[in-house]
Design a protein that fits this description.
alpha/beta; eight-stranded mixed beta sheet; six-stranded parallel beta sheet; 32 helices; about 15% strand; DNA-binding
Length: about 775
DNA sequence: CAGGCCGTGCTTTTT
DNA sequence: GCACGGCCTG
């Protein structure tokens, strides 16, 4: 494609981003603004202007994003050697070359979360810390979060000793250093370490840093709003002399703060690089005007952001609809039958639909309704291929062959399948190996020297090590053959083939798939074939990426998983207080957490191209109990028309099954009344009519257009109130409508924060301030 | 050493 | 409400 016509297809700001070559560049790209296209064209443009492709490094977070970008660059510049990689893969490569610099051997293992947990558990046992009282997963999370703050074990311990920490921190202060030592002894790193070791490498070796700075003269980072401290330091470290750092992202789509991502990194880009050019991509090519206006109105309520407008030439489209249901059963049934109706009318096909929810737990009831209504669907969740037990087992054999010090892999397979090396034997071997200073494999090979072990255990251990030692890539010839050899000798799949349980058949199929993967790898890399390379792809690649767009199925996923995708018709279910915003963010004293929740809903809404439905119910099952819900405070910040199904007049919903009669509803839910917001909008009940309706914000409704005579409105933010039990407090938030109007109070005594239903609580207003 | 029973404790999850 | 992990029994 000649580049004149190419530029013609770009908007003015897109062109500015594409044409920009030297110096820092910040691309603030709103949802659906053609960001990936801009980045890839920019790379192509740079190369056409004489930049050496090998001096360009493009970094993404996911393999999927990296793959897409690589494909698009390849299409524009066939054969160009631009390095497109994920952060973790980039660091893994760098560390292979400089492993010694951080105390590792080049054949180090990469521990995933499961390995990590296992090693932490092992470490805790050695420290005599009860893994029941202190859950390894939680300890692991705290260690990971410390690492995200770039707090080494030494720093954590020091920090802990300087001020009195709590019980958990005392445990972490003991486990963290021991865990790091165990990792080193295993010649292994966890995901966080890949980044941290790289930072250490760059800090401790100024000459390496400047070598990389010079080698990667042009650095592009996608989704910059999701970078954590370590990633930020890596990127900035290699952009000091050659300050051609191009950061792209959208602060409004930062939804991984809880994993250490720092929205501040993108917000302060212009401080870090004062000479930066800033390009805003504000034109949206995805959604209708109604959808964008509604999403924009929501996100405008965030304080921590860069103001950015969302504009589109797309048609106005249908208004965003808020569907109000009696309960989640009805919610799921109506969604399922509505999808069927729209498909039957020929407007849409199943793969045009997506259903998003805040927590995975919500998917179950939707899935059930979809199958009952014969709606084909796929769930974007479940265990990733490489996380399945049988795959991990097989890979652990491979890892142990490659890195015999790998404790997690040893522990995983030493008795899988069972070969008489039980827990007792293992812990005796552990203890002995650590006093003797031997790795587990070496200790097991000379188990007869261990006085605590019985003859049978010794025999089993020696047989195990002898078996592992005869596995070698050189002898097997290829990785797939090595895998076949392992499967054959270990009898890992014994019994599965004859078993008629679905699970065993699935396991067998998975194992076969791994062998197929391996042979594909073998042929793809030819003589370069190495255990290292194969293991690296399997530990850093997630198969969950391969969610298909053309399956003819409705897609279900969490709001987090939805980022970066688009669907013609989107349902966001459970837009209720405590779900989104999630209760945890409401309990937090950090207001930023609620803003992240708002961004999460924003991300969900902006996935929609033509139709967007938000849903809420009056009651929802929560941990086995059915509770009255409170509408999400975010609803008041969006624009929608209400389509009420909970009043028995409901729209198109005529499913006879399981629908509560009015009598049932009266009995079971004393406060099931249609809120005024709904009553006010009863004419909005048919989906087909909605396009004719005028837009109303929930806030408008709340401000008196509706009949609310019986509602106590006497609360305001900032007001001081008295509670008979909790004493004085200050009203921090008001949310919900009508009878669901809720008041959140921060009590002055201690840290108590409580939310009440305004109509029913014993709160006495005492005055303002 | 497997299979069942009970108690616990619950977001999100790019790598 | 359900899933996972630990513990106990056959």
């Amino acid at each position: 494609m000649p580049h004149t016509s190419l530029s013609d297809q770009l908007t003015a700001s897109q062109r500015r981003a594409v044409e920009h070559r030297d110096g820092p560049l910040l691309i603030l790209a709103g949802p659906g603004s053609g960001k990936t296209r801009v980045i890839t064209q920019r790379i192509a443009q740079m190369v056409r202007r004489g930049v050496d492709p090998r001096s360009i490094l493009a970094i993404t977070f996911t393999n999927k994003a990296a793959g897409e970008m690589a494909d698009r660059v390849e299409a524009l510049l066939p054969g160009a050697k631009v390095w497109v990689s994920t952060f973790h893969k980039f660091c893994a490569r760098l560390l292979r070359q400089h492993a010694r610099g951080v105390g590792l051997d080049t054949n180090y293992s990469i521990f995933d979360t499961v390995d990590q947990r296992q090693l932490i558990k092992l470490t805790m046992r050695e420290l005599d810390i009860d893994p029941v009282t202190y859950q390894p997963a939680k300890i692991a999370a705290q260690i990971s979060s410390a690492k995200n703050r770039m707090q080494s074990s030494e720093m954590f311990v020091q920090h802990y000793e300087e001020r009195i920490g709590n019980h958990d921190q005392a445990v972490v202060a003991r486990v963290y250093p021991a865990y790091q030592r165990a990792l080193l002894a295993s010649n292994a790193v966890d995901f966080d370490d890949l980044l941290l070791h790289t930072v250490a490498l760059l800090v401790e070796n100024p000459e390496l840093r400047s070598e990389l700075d010079a080698r990667f003269r042009y650095v592009l980072v996608d989704e910059y709003q999701d970078t954590n401290l370590a990633q930020y330091q890596i990127v900035t470290a290699i952009s000091q002399e050659h300050r051609n750092l191009c950061a792209t992202g959208d602060p409004d789509q930062s939804i991984y703060g809880w994993r250490g991502a720092r929205i501040g990194n993108i917000l302060r880009f212009e401080n870090d690089f004062p000479e930066a050019e800033v390009v805003r991509l504000e034109e949206n090519f995805r959604s209708t005007q109604h959808i964008l206006a509604s999403a924009d109105s929501l996100i405008a309520h965030n304080v921590e952001r860069k103001a950015k407008s969302l504009i589109t030439d797309n048609p106005q489209g249908a208004p965003v609809e808020l569907l109000n249901f009696y309960d989640e059963r009805q919610e799921a049934d109506v969604i399922a039958s509505e999808i069927n109706r729209m498909v039957a009318e020929g407007d849409e096909s199943y793969n045009d639909f997506a259903i998003f929810y805040r927590v995975n737990a919500l998917s179950r009831k939707i899935e059930r309704a979809l199958s009952e209504h014969r709606v084909p669907y796929q769930v974007a969740a479940g265990l990733a291929f490489y996380e399945r037990a049988e795959i991990k087992d097989l890979l652990a054999y491979l890892r142990l062959v490659h890195n015999p010090k790998d404790v997690a892999s040893f522990a995983r397979v030493v008795n899988t399948p069972t070969r008489g090396i039980g827990k007792k034997t293992q812990s005796r071997l552990n203890r002995w190996a650590s006093t003797e200073g031997l790795s587990l494999m070496v200790a097991a090979a000379q188990a007869e020297r261990c006085p605590q072990l019985g003859a049978r255990a010794v025999k089993a251990l020696k047989a195990f090590t002898a078996m592992i030692e005869q596995f070698s890539l050189a002898d097997a010839g290829s990785i797939s053959d090595l895998l076949r050899m392992i499967i054959d000798q270990t009898q890992l799949t014994r019994g599965w083939a004859d078993s008629d349980t679905e699970q065993d058949q699935q396991r067998l199929a998975n194992v076969n798939e791994l062998v197929t993967d391996a042979s594909q790898y073998d042929t793809a890399v030819g003589s370069e074939s190495s255990l290292e390379g194969f293991l690296e792809t399997t530990s850093l690649v997630n198969e969950g990426d391969s969610l298909d767009g053309e399956t003819g199925r409705v897609t279900l996923m969490t709001l987090h998983a939805a980022k970066g995708l688009e669907f013609p018709v989107v349902y966001v279910v459970g837009v209720e207080e405590n779900l989104i915003p999630h209760e945890r963010s409401l309990r937090s004293d950090d207001w930023r957490e609620k803003e992240e929740e708002r961004r999460l809903l924003f991300v969900g809404m902006t996935r929609a191209m033509r139709r967007l439905f938000l849903t809420q119910t009056l009651r929802r099952d929560f941990r086995g109990r059915s509770l009255a819900t409170i509408p999400s405070e975010f609803l008041m910040e969006t624009e929608f028309v209400l389509n009420n199904y909970a009043d028995g007049l409901g729209g198109e919903w005529d499913s006879t099954a399981n629908r509560p009669t009015h009598d049932e509803m009266d009995q079971s839910v004393p406060d099931h009344d249609v809120p005024p917001i709904a009553a006010n909008m009863q004419h909005a009940r048919s989906t087909k009519q909605s396009a004719k309706l005028s837009l109303t914000t929930a806030a408008d409704l709340l401000n008196g257009t509706s009949d609310q005579a019986d509602i106590p409105v006497g609360f305001a933010e900032g007001m001081t109130v008295r509670h008979p039990k909790y004493g004085l407090g200050t009203v921090t938030t008001l949310s919900g409508f009508s009878k669901n109007r809720a008041v959140t109070v921060q009590f002055h005594d201690r840290d108590r924060i409580e939310t009440f239903i305004a109509a029913k609580c014993p709160l006495q207003p005492v005055g303002m301030g």
